[in-house]
Amino acid sequence: MLAFIDESGHPHPNDPSARPVVVAVCVSETNLRYVTSRIYGLKRQLLTAPDVELKATRLLTRGTFRRIDLKREFVESFFDLLRDLPIATFAIIMERPLEELPETNLLPSQFRFLLERISLLAETRQEMATILFDGEGTSQSGGLSAKFRNYLYRSVEGRSRVSITDGPFFVDSRITVGIQIADMAAGVIRQYEENELFHTSPATDPYLHALRRYYRALQGMTVDQFSPEGYVRHGFYRMPERQHYLTPEQYDPEGG
Question: What is the signed CA dihedral for 46, 49, 51, 57, rounded to 10 degrees?
Fold first, then answer.
């Protein structure tokens, strides 16, 4: 199984995103070519160029819905297509931290929670999960690659993730469809959360109505699971701000 991970927003007090999001899109290797070909086919049909990179910052905007009919048609068709593809989605929705997070060699909590969900899914499917991130791992999130390895091999929690392969891959989103799907999904979920569409009616706003529909489509592709201790692990998890600051000794088995 391949798990493509991407973010929308960043957990920093000065970041404009009030609710940054990290998303995983999971695809069994046997289904990857099918998923990729369907997305390429849709790009070829509506965008004329199958190599166009899908980015939420370019496509999930009010301008797309006011002025650009072809882009709007593509976005609608893209999320309709996702409903029929053999993928699973997980999301960790964060609260923007009130203070700058200290530099440590610990894997940030949002990635720990995401890896737990991926690991549980892989175990259910009797597969091994390979993690793929956008970009390169030396500077991203303060050296995400090293933090990932430290987590897997130096923490009790990480060593229990036996269905996660031994190191992440860092890929180019321009040529990796799985990352592009994760980017679009993260963009939808972040905007849905920041506009509080879970309890606010979008009234006559067609853009917010669309975001709500796309979110529900993504929510239909997730799964709630249970940890070995019996605690529920929601596929879409709203992470409290306090969990940004946990050390390994403070990890709560009920959290996440």
Answer: -60
Span 137-143, average pLDDT: 55
DSSP state of 127: -
Tokens coding 36: 């990729």
Could you tell me the two tokens for 198?
């879970």
Rounded CA-CA distance 180/53 in Å is: 7
Half-sphere exposure of 20 (CA within 13 A, CB side): 19
Looking at residue 51, what is its pLDDT?
Answer: 83
User: What angle in degrees, to the nearest 10, is found between the helix axes of 29-46 and 69-82?
Assistant: 160
* pTM of the model as a whole: 0.92
Count CA within 13 A, CB hemisphere, residue 128.
7
Q: 152 near 164, Cβ under 8 Å?
A: yes
Q: For residues 208 and 119, what is the distance between their CA atoms, to the nearest angstrom? A: 33
